[in-house]
Amino acid sequence: MARISGFTTMATGFCIAMDDRLRLVQMLSPAFPIGGFAYSQGLEQVMATGQVTADNLEDWVCDVLEFGTPQMDAVIVAQAHAAGDPDQLSDLIRAMASCAEREIELMEQGRAFCALVAGITGETVSVRPYPVAVGLATRGLAVPVEEVLALFLHGAAAQMISAATRFLPMGQTRAQAMLARLSSRIGAIAQRAAVMPLEDISSFTPGADMAAMRHETLEVRIFRT
């Protein structure tokens, strides 16, 4: 009887973890309708000028993931996930926005994400910047924070590559191969962000930041950032 009881407990735990993992995949999937397809994080600007092409796109995405806003956002997700003060985190990430479009992207995706989570759970959800909202929504899931961050960063990489696929002469196969090659790098960034103290948060991608600023005055554009 004890063996059966133990097996039942293990099976129940496995089912709970699997349910939570599937909820996480749903929330961080590109198919979750928060409007991510409309943003390029300044990438459209450098593609329009020819600075970024299909041949050097992977280098650009890698640098932005490693040193730019995605890794900074991942730290905020981890802090919110670990019961950090959501008001403080929201103020910090908005204060560190490099341009007006960056703040718009944070808040518009956060607003859409919070509305969807509220509609799914039936709970009242306060509007937060997107990374803070993700951290709060994943607090109760039986999934390691590193996995949350890896999926969050994977979504950021997929968003940039998808934007490039619609702008550059680059096929879907090449784009998916590029995304697959980023897996180990994304995992390493997630591991680092999971344990990084909030006082160590930073970003240093001046080229990407300048591109995001210039994008605000780009006359013809297909992306909002």
Mean pLDDT: 91
Shape descriptor reads globular
Q: Indicate the CATH class.
A: Mainly Alpha
- CATH architecture level-2 label: Orthogonal Bundle
SS element count, helices: 11
Largest sheet: none
Order of helices and strands: HHHHHHHHHHH
Number of strands: 0
Written overview of the protein:
By secondary structure, the chain is mostly helical. It has one domain: Urease accessory protein UreF, CATH 1.10.4190. Helix content is 68%, strand content 0%. The chain contains 11 helices and no strands.
Keywords:
mainly alpha, Urease accessory protein UreF, 225 residues
Fold blueprint:
Elements (H helix, E strand, L loop, with lengths): L1 H27 L14 H6 L8 H11 L1 H13 L4 H10 L4 H22 L8 H8 L7 H23 L4 H10 L1 H13 L10 H10 L10
Helix pairs in contact: 3-4, 3-8, 4-7, 4-8, 4-10, 6-7, 8-9, 8-10
Summarize the structure.
The protein has a single domain, classed as Orthogonal Bundle (Urease accessory protein UreF), CATH 1.10.4190.
